[in-house]
Structures are given as C-alpha cells and as structure tokens.
Amino acid sequence: MKFKRDDKGELVQRQVETAGSQHAERHGDSQPEVEEEMADDMEALEFETAMQNLRQAVYNDLKIPEHPIEVNQFNICKLIQEGKLKTLKLQDLKAICTTIGLTTEGSQARKKVLC
After folding, report:
1. Are 4 and 12 contacting, i.e. CB atoms less than 8 angstroms apart?
2. Neighbours of 74 (CB within 10 A)
3. What is the pTM of this model?
4. Chain segment 43-66, per-residue pLDDT in tens
5. What is the largest CA-CA distance in the chain?
6. DSSP string, 50-66
7. Cis peptide before 68 (omega within 30 of 0)
8. Which of 67, 78, 76, 66 is nearest to 96 (CA)?
9. Which residue blocks in 1-115 are alpha helix, DSSP H?
10. What is the spatial distance between Cα 30 and Cα 36, in angstroms, rounded to a whole number?
11. What is the C-alpha separation between 61 and 67, in angstroms, rounded?
C-alpha cells in the first residue's frame, strides 16, 4: 500500500484515519472495553482521593509538636542540643513532666552516691 504524504513529509489526514480504523477492526477494539477501563480508572481515582483525605485527617489529628518545644520557660530542644537537660534541678524536671503529662517512675528523690 502506498502512503501519500504532504509537503512536510507527514501522512495525509485521511490515511491516518483509515489506518486507525483498520487497526481497530483487526484488533477487535470495542467501545465497551474502553468504557470499562474508564470506569475502573474512575473507581481507582475515587479510592485514591478517599485515601488522601484519610491520611490528611489522621495527620491533622496527630498534633505533631512544632519545634522548638518550649515548656514553661524552658526550651527543651536547646537544652538537649547543649547537653544541659540533665543539669536541671529535680524540681524543674518534675514541673516539666507534670506540664506535658508525663508520668515518672521510681523514686522521686535524688539518691545519694556512696563513695
């Protein structure tokens, strides 16, 4: 079969349409299959949208703390970075734990070190 080309070297529109129709006839392309694929795609899109909304709702409910974390007058992030959290007085540590709702275990008094 000869292909007629225009002055740009491209196939003429009529031949492109004919070739597409012939291809569809040979391979049995039909409209119901296309509609079924589109329905599947729409269902997948709806599922992905629902999942994205669920992820966003969970993320919003997590209430992830923003940095720096400040409790009372203490910048916890800075204290940890500088290694000064362990030098705080026991009273201050108890106040921090109470403020952020942490429970402490064990003895609440400082233990004496025996030499």
Report:
1. yes
2. 19
3. 0.38
4. 999 999 999 999 999 988 887 777
5. 104
6. HHHHHHHHHHHHH-PPP
7. yes
8. 76
9. 13-27, 31-62, 76-82, 90-100
10. 10
11. 18
